[in-house]
Amino acid sequence: MDAREWIACFSALVTADAERLTRLDSAIGDGDHGSNLDRGLRAAVSALEGADLPPGKVLMTAGRTLVSKTGGASGPLYGTVLRRAGKALGDASEVDAPGLGAALRAALEGVQELGKAVEGDKTMVDALAPAVAAYEAAAGDGLAAAASAALDAASKGAEATVPLQARKGRASYLGPRSVGHLDPGAASTVLLFRALAEVS
Ligand code: ADP
Ligand code: MG
Q1: Four-CA torsion 129, 12, 50, 6, nearest 10 degrees
Q2: Lowest CB count within 10 Å: 37, 99, 109, 185, which one?
Q3: Is the whole model's pTM more than 0.85, yes or no?
Q4: How far is CA 1 from CA 4, 147, 182, in A?
């Protein structure tokens, strides 16, 4: 798995889906999720251009850039995902299946420490937590198989946010009116795992 390709692929998928993400956020938030993430990820891709870094440092650089260039809640949240994952990978020159599993677990823990969301709160955690668990369960079959299992679980987790009432983030201000909509951050988390599956 090439970490720079992962970020570039995530960025391209978010660019392609930015309008949909923004539409989802218009329904239960302030309509900026697609543009926020698109801006931050483009900046991350630029920051990585020409740099020859080990995978852990690639993710840490991308995460730092996301924190500084992405508006809204998703900047610090996705920044934490990438920085924690990068930190867990350390200075290793190659990413193996168990190493990436530990990195994804650290990323989830970081997001939950920061945002205090648990599964069922209708946030990106509803896609991230099952994806990490599915990755770990399939890690023995290799990185590509685990990434594909994670993508499947992330998609199902995101879909399952539709009937939920939001208990964290801007959507929680809507109370029961947040029911019946897909959470935008869960939808973008699916793209993070689609990108991982594509480059694995
Ligand atoms: P903002 O809500 O500041 O406009 P974005 O629109 O970029 O930020 O991102 C909204 C997404 O962030 C939500 O759909 C949700 O998935 C995620 N989110 C918001 N608050 C939290 C939280 N406390 N923990 C985890 N994810 C959260
Ligand atoms: Mg928003």
Answers
A1: 30
A2: 109
A3: yes
A4: 9, 10, 30
185 in ligand 1 pocket by Cβ < 6 Å? yes
CATH number for position 135:
1.25.40.340
Q: Which of 14, 33, 109, 112 to mutate to test the pocket of ligand 1 (most atoms within 8 A of CB)?
A: 33
What is d(CA 66, CA 123) in angstroms, rounded to the nearest whole number?
18
The number of domains in the chain is 1
Tell me which residue range forms the domain holding 177: 3-199
Rounded Cα distance between 60 and 43, Å, is 13
Per-residue tens of pLDDT for the chain, all 200 residues: 999 999 999 999 999 999 999 999 999 999 999 999 999 999 999 999 998 999 999 999 999 999 999 888 999 999 999 999 999 999 999 999 999 999 999 999 999 999 999 999 999 999 999 999 999 999 999 999 999 999 999 999 999 999 999 999 999 999 999 999 999 999 999 999 999 999 99
The two tokens of residue 178 are 């947040």
